[in-house]
């Protein structure tokens, strides 16, 4: 935590004292990110804090789902990059419940793209599966798992495919810098959206339950966690809990081992328990620049993506 010190001359005026009184409970933090950027925060008395939390939490109930989310900053550029979905789908055979959270990083574009596209893709695929099922619309649970798995892949691949349509690799390899700039100028709007989605990312944690409420599917990509609460007379508070997902980040030994095995001869693929010392989640939708040939970073992102380059140097050194 970084504290700012205000020095007051011995003969300071009453106006300066009043100004100091007004800001005495304000401090700055780097949010643990390093670099020179600072965020201002206000220390509130406990009684004020409680009411402020209620105000900002925006608690909701949709069907049988209780929702709470926090946006502690009003300015769009300072909003947290967390999003959620809570939907009921009337499909053949009854009502399905879909709930998901998406933890974005490096910006809002990718997480909002995932929020807009992932639920509808799951719903459409699930509806097609149910329409081709047997009597009673009964499906093999493994088929529903496959729907979720494929939906994650398809949303992520859609970002890659859009970039490759705009710049096929064979074409990009032959283009001069002037030709790249001209092509970007001709497709400026498309490039703006793609550049953001390719240099940002989002985790996905989703739960899907069938009309009978006898089956629950969970899909996880990233470092959020699903926890199942079960009523248990034997527990002290009447509930027991069970983790349904594991974290995909550098703090998970299994993930560290997986990444190292998939990148033999690349000792710096993980540094400080982050991908190339930069990214905390080891699996996510987006972060496309890490998944495609390096020429895209060399010719496109590093030269024509100003928002990406404006990140603190501590977040860019490995790129």
TrEMBL record:
Residues covered by region (Disordered): 239-266
Compositionally biased residues, Basic and acidic residues: 253-266
PROSITE patterns: PPM_2
Residue stretches making up the PPM-type phosphatase domain: 72-319
InterPro entries for this protein: PP2C (IPR015655), PPM-type-like_dom_sf (IPR036457), PPM-type_phosphatase-like_dom (IPR001932)
Pfam families for the chain: PP2C (PF00481)
SMART domains the UniProt entry points to: PP2Cc
Biased composition, class Polar residues, residue ranges: 239-252
Gene3D superfamilies to which the protein is assigned, alphabetical: PPM-type phosphatase domain
Annotated GO MF terms: protein serine/threonine phosphatase activity
PANTHER family (alphabetical): PROTEIN PHOSPHATASE 1L (PTHR13832:SF827), PROTEIN PHOSPHATASE 2C (PTHR13832)
Name this polypeptide is given: Protein serine threonine phosphatase 2C
